[in-house]
Design goal:
The chain is mainly α. The protein is built from 28 helices and eleven strands.
Length: about 600
């Protein structure tokens, strides 16, 4: 109490028991006033700085601010023995209905720094991230699980008053990083947001690094950040239901599959073509829902496999792309009117023209040995045996063509006769005789192009044109070069065939993440330019690792072939190549840019 000469009588009157009771009765019974909160916080700070020794409050008043505040002591002087000791636990309820000294939730949060975390808050935040990084159960963690963690419990006790729950603090202070959503049995489940993933990933790596010990056992390696982020994302999803964003994406995926005959035809796909994952990734509606729900670290394939794999089937084709259709139903195909003299539907998909450069998202061509086939001759009876492409080729005679092969060869040579310029493979596949001979001989999974290269490559040459489409042409005797040179495999194809067909290498994964991160952080008015991204220090380092000097594949070609389902290009009139997330580039605006404006 501040004692002045004019107010001395009033101060003395307050020493009276009745006046004291009247004063306390005038204070709010359920919370502290603003002045009390400020006093409480000041005392707690001073007590914490002195802890574990007691803080001599009255002695401090006498010695430090005695000129402003007077401490009135009882006649026996017992007040001089009073001191403040920092509490280690919240005080037990008094049962009187009076306000607790730890204050109400609103008052507690009003005292916290809105622009940063105190040391105790940071400790609680770190304990939450560590809890999520250590969570191993396939079930989603609940708020009860988090509150039961020893580290979280310890940090809560040091910071939170009894009126403030962990959920209150999380929602008020780190709600952009961690969310709670209704779960089974009414328990709130913990959901890690996209903003919170990097922190949990860093904590995961920190734990992994600190837990690795010496010894001759397998050397410990840090889990790649993108893998940890992806796993954290899936851990944050409920195991027994799909979230609204997932339901929307699922509906668009199913709609795309059911509408494929029309969509495929509009994309210029050949008759009988089934949808592949890159086709789906290019669909505007699928892309919109994907961008709204999935973080960059999670591919559409990962989400389908792990969340709706019971409904959607993915099967890798000979080019390393994944065919997609609804389980329990036949794959949808592009349908067109076919003359009665032709087969109703061709049996083979081999040789389908890959999408134009920039529209693919495949993982490169698969090595020949992973393509499935069946017995070489159509006359084989009984159930068809699944075997590799190499097995199929190896069963063919080495010194002659079978009757079915001879018919297919004759059809191809007849079609190419008199054509001096290369013709597209897709056009050749529409020839009735080639179609009939091919469907009568080649199994579904064996591409015509590979058969041509291996069995009649000395007479027919396959190559890619500027747009990435395969072409056929008759080899000429005056072309020069040895037979070995003529049948040499395209070095670009060799590069892509050496890459895993159903996944990325660690270096590719890092480069993909860097590119997606670059796009996400881009704040320019126009879409970023590939040449500028290539100058980014991190991207340049990763690009040089994936595409070292001498590699026959350039940066754009790698993006087209490996992550084209996620990133697309648009060329401006100036020749600059802009890029961005597929479905989000303004092609019209980029095409309309003048050279001087870039």
């Amino acid at each position: 109490r501040v004692v002045t000469e004019s107010g001395k009588q009033t101060a003395m009157a307050l020493d009276d028991k009745a006046d004291q009771e009247a004063y306390f009765s005038s204070l709010p019974q359920t919370n502290l006033t603003a002045q009390e909160l400020a006093l409480r916080q000041a005392i707690l700070d001073l007590a914490e700085a002195r802890s574990p020794k007691p803080f001599p409050l009255l002695e401090w008043i006498d010695r430090r601010i005695g000129g402003e505040i007077e401490v009135r002591r009882s006649p026996a002087g017992q007040a001089t023995q009073a001191s403040i000791l920092l509490r280690t636990t919240a005080p037990a309820p008094s049962g009187t209905g009076a306000a607790d000294s730890r204050a109400s939730p609103e008052a507690f949060f009003s005292l916290l720094d809105p622009s940063g975390f105190s040391q105790k808050e940071q400790a609680l935040r770190e304990s939450v991230f560590e809890f999520l990084a250590r969570w191993k159960s396939r079930d989603l963690a609940t708020i009860v699980d988090m509150e039961g963690d020893a580290n979280v419990k310890r940090a809560m006790g040091a910071l939170l008053p009894k009126e403030v729950t962990l959920k209150d603090w999380v929602e008020q202070r780190i709600g952009a990083e961690v969310e709670f959503r209704p779960g089974v049995g009414g328990k709130d489940v913990v959901h890690l947001t996209q903003h919170g993933m990097p922190f949990v990933t860093a904590k995961y790596q920190e734990i992994a690094a600190s837990s690795s010990g010496p010894g001759p056992t397998k050397p410990a390696t840090a889990v790649p950040a993108q893998h940890a982020a992806r796993d954290s994302f899936f851990k944050g999803l409920p195991t027994d239901e799909l979230l609204p964003g997932e339901l929307a994406l699922r509906d668009k995926v199913l709609n795309f599959i059911s509408d494929w005959p029309r969509i495929g035809a509009s994309l210029g796909k050949p008759v009988g073509a089934v949808p592949i994952l890159p086709d789906m990734g290019q669909d505007a509606e699928v892309q919109r829902c994907r961008a709204a729900f999935l973080p960059p670290s999670v591919s559409l394939k990962d989400w389908i496999d792990r969340r709706i794999g019971g409904e959607i089937e993915l099967q890798k084709d000979e080019k390393g792309n994944f065919k997609v259709w609804q389980r329990g139903k036949p794959p949808p195909k592009v349908l067109k009117a076919i003359p009665a003299s032709m087969p109703a539907t061709p049996k083979s998909k081999g040789g389908i023209v890959p999408p134009v450069a920039g529209a693919t998202g495949g993982k490169g061509l698969a090595a020949a040995g992973v393509n499935n086939g069946q017995a070489a001759e159509k006359k084989t009876t009984g159930s068809k045996v699944t075997e590799s492409f190499e097995d199929f080729i190896n069963k063919l005679p080495t010194d002659r063509h079978t009757e079915s092969e001879a018919e297919l060869r004759a059809a191809i040579l007849k079609y190419l006769e008199g054509k001096d310029l290369p013709v597209q493979l897709s056009a050749a596949l529409k020839d009735r005789q080639i179609m009939q001979s091919r469907s009568a001989f080649l199994p579904l999974e064996v591409p015509l192009r590979l058969w041509i290269d291996r069995r009649i490559g000395g007479e027919v040459e396959t190559a890619k044109d500027a747009s990435g489409r395969y072409t056929l042409t008759l080899r000429r005797s005056d072309n020069g070069g040895t037979s070995e040179e003529k049948t040499k495999v395209d070095p670009k194809e060799q590069f892509f065939e050496a890459l895993p067909s159903d996944s990325f290498t660690p270096e590719e994964e890092q480069l993909r993440e860097a590119l997606l991160d670059y796009i996400q952080k881009w704040r320019g008015k126009d879409a970023p330019v590939l040449s500028h991204a290539g100058s980014d220090s991190q991207i340049k380092m990763l690009r040089d690792t994936v595409l070292p000097k001498g590699t026959p594949v350039n940066f754009k070609e790698w993006i087209d072939r490996r992550i084209g389902g996620e990133i697309e290009f648009a060329e401006a009139p100036s020749g600059l190549m802009h890029f961005g997330l597929r479905g989000q580039l303004d092609h019209a605006a980029i095409r309309g840019k003048r050279a001087g404006s870039e």
